[in-house]
TrEMBL record:
Keywords: Glutamine amidotransferase, Transferase
One of the record's GO molecular function terms: transferase activity
InterPro entries: ChyE-like (IPR044992), Class_I_gatase-like (IPR029062), GATASE (IPR017926)
PANTHER family xrefs: GLUTAMINE AMIDOTRANSFERASE YLR126C-RELATED (PTHR42695:SF5)
GO CC terms, sorted: cytosol
Entry annotated with the keyword Transcription: no
TM stretches of this protein: none
Pfam families assigned to the protein according to its UniProt record, in alphabetical order: GATase
Taxonomic path: Bacteria, Pseudomonadati, Pseudomonadota, Alphaproteobacteria, Rhodobacterales
UniProt-recorded name of the protein: Type 1 glutamine amidotransferase
Domain spans labelled Glutamine amidotransferase: 53-176
UniProt superkingdom: Bacteria
């Protein structure tokens, strides 16, 4: 099964040589599931020709806001709507979670409550899963067809499912602790409040449930779908 990675942002130059760029992180997260990957740098306006060029699509995180005026935003929203209409499965992570919601009629904005950084607990039904977070923007109004499957007191719409068409997560299952630590040292200073960084730093090393989410992503991509 071929998964197209729609890359909407770049890992910091200071971290990528040692830790990889975002597509590398997702390939590592989903290793062992029989996927092969092709990356399209949509942030640089490299788009697939058709929504059926791959069997499923994974939209990465980004330092950009879904509501900002960047050249790739509207074409990406158009692509999402076409894939959704054709029932080509999509997975969105952080920015990907937000841009899918926005493209389908939801609302994304900078959250007045501030930042979520580092190991963060989320309720997924009866399970509490801990995942690394790095975001201030949130989905604040759901599009039609979205069902909340993960949340906490800080982020009400932390994970969404749209029947068999999209699965999205606000947190970053692909981020390892060392990458979050690197983000705190490169992108966090002067942007994320010191007390938020201190709290996140104290929780680094907490076991995270990245593979629980990886299994759910893999199962979502592989789920049988009829002709549409």
């Amino acid at each position: 099964m071929r998964i197209g990675i729609l890359q909407t942002g770049l890992a910091p130059d200071a971290l990528a040589p040692q830790m990889g760029d975002y597509p590398d992180m997702f390939a590592r997260l989903l290793d062992g599931n029989g996927f092969d990957f092709r990356t399209y740098r949509v942030v640089d306006m490299e788009f697939p020709a058709d929504v059926h060029d791959c069997d499923g699509w994974l939209i990465t995180g980004s330092r950009h806001g879904a509501y900002e005026d960047h050249p790739f935003i509207k074409p990406l929203e158009d692509f999402i709507r076409r894939a959704y209409a054709e029932h080509v499965p999509m997975v969105g992570i952080c920015f990907g979670h937000q841009i899918i919601a926005q493209a389908l009629g939801g609302k994304v904005e900078r959250f007045d409550g501030g930042w979520a950084v580092g190991p963060t607990d989320y309720a997924f039904g009866d399970e509490t899963l801990t995942l690394n977070a790095w975001h201030r923007d949130q989905v604040v109004a759901l599009p039609e067809g979205a069902e909340v499957i993960g949340s906490n007191a800080f982020c009400e719409n932390a994970a969404l499912v749209y029947d068999d068409r999209a699965l999205t997560v606000q947190a970053h299952p692909e981020f390892r602790d060392e990458f979050v630590d690197g983000l705190m040292k490169t992108r966090g200073k002067g942007v994320v409040p010191d007390e938020v960084m201190a709290k996140a730093g104290a929780r680094l090393g907490t076991p995270i449930h990245d593979q629980t989410i990886a299994r759910r992503i893999a199962a979502f991509f592989k789920a049988p779908r009829g002709e549409n």
